[in-house]
Specification:
4-stranded antiparallel sheet, 21% strand, alpha+beta
Length: 245
C-alpha cells in the first residue's frame, strides 16, 4: 500500500478545512492524503456505499441528479468551499452521483476514518453538519433558479460559481458541458454565451471561457448567486467566530 503524501499546512486551499481549530486540523491532516482527481471521474455513485470523502482544493466536482428517463442535471458545483460525500455525514444513501468536472487536487479521507473523527472531534463534526445544511440550501436555490430565471441569468450564476470555486478567470467550458450541467439545449447555451460575449462580459475561445467584466457579470446574474454565497459565508464566519483557535 502506498503511503499517503505528507500534508503541509495548506488547509487554506479548502475553505472548510481552514475554518477548523489548529488542534483539530492537525488530527485530520495526519489521516488525509492529497490526491489528483481526473475530469470525468465518478467519485460517488447513486445508492453506492462510498469509500472516501473529498475536500476539493483546485478541482471541481458536480453533484448530479438523474431522472428516471436518464436525463441529468447539476444541482451543485463543489470546489474549494465544498465537501464530496455528505452521505457519510448524514449516514444515509442519497440518489446522486458526484462527477469530476475539472481536474485538480483534493484532500481524501477514508469513510471509516471520517466516522471515527466525527465521534472524536466535536468541532469537525459540527463543521460538517453546518456545511451539509448549507448544501441543502444551495441545492434548493439552484432548483428555484433553474425553474424561474432566464437562461442568461442562470449562465451568469453558473460562471460566478466557477470563479468562486476555482479562483481563476479563465476555465475550460464547452457548450455541451454547460447544457448537460444546467439541463438545457446546447443551442440555447450557444445563444446565451454569444450574447454575453457581444456585451463584453465574457470571451469564448476553443472551449474556454474568460471573464472580462466581473461587475457586469454580477449585475446580470439573478439573486440566487448572492443568496447561495451569503448563506455559505455566514455559516463559515459563524463557525470561525465560535471556534477561534
Amino acid at each position: 500500500m502506498n503511503t499517503p503524501p505528507k500534508i503541509s499546512d495548506e488547509r487554506s486551499l479548502n475553505v472548510l478545512l481552514s475554518a477548523l481549530p489548529t488542534s483539530e486540523w492537525k488530527k485530520i491532516s495526519d489521516v488525509c492524503a492529497i490526491v489528483e482527481l481526473e475530469k470525468g471521474q465518478v467519485l460517488w455513485e447513486a445508492e453506492e456505499k462510498g469509500k472516501y470523502i473529498y475536500f476539493p482544493i483546485s478541482s471541481l466536482v458536480s453533484l448530479m441528479y438523474e431522472s428516471e428517463g436518464g436525463g441529468s442535471i447539476s444541482v451543485s458545483s463543489l470546489g474549494r468551499h465544498g465537501i464530496v460525500g455528505t452521505s457519510i455525514i448524514l449516514g444515509i444513501k442519497t440518489p446522486d452521483r458526484a462527477v469530476v468536472t475539472y481536474s485538480g487536487a483534493a484532500y481524501q479521507l477514508g469513510s471509516g476514518l471520517v466516522r471515527h473523527e466525527l465521534s472524536e472531534c466535536g468541532d469537525f463534526h459540527e463543521l460538517l453538519l453546518k456545511y451539509t445544511h448549507g448544501l441543502m440550501t444551495q441545492i434548493a436555490q439552484t432548483a428555484i433558479c433553474n425553474r424561474l430565471h432566464r437562461l442568461d441569468q442562470q449562465m451568469c450564476r453558473f460562471i460566478l460559481e466557477l470563479n468562486d470555486e476555482l479562483q481563476v478567470e479563465t476555465f475550460p467550458l464547452t457548450h455541451e458541458q454547460v447544457a448537460s450541467m444546467i439541463g438545457v439545449r446546447r443551442e440555447s447555451v450557444s445563444l446565451s454565451l454569444s450574447s454575453l460575449t457581444r456585451q463584453g462580459i465574457i470571451e469564448t475561445r476553443r472551449g474556454r471561457v474568460t471573464i472580462s467584466d466581473l461587475t457586469k457579470l454580477r449585475s446580470i446574474s439573478c439573486e440566487c448567486y448572492e443568496v447561495i454565497r451569503a448563506s455559505r459565508d455566514l455559516i463559515i464566519n459563524r463557525y470561525r467566530a465560535e471556534h477561534r483557535s
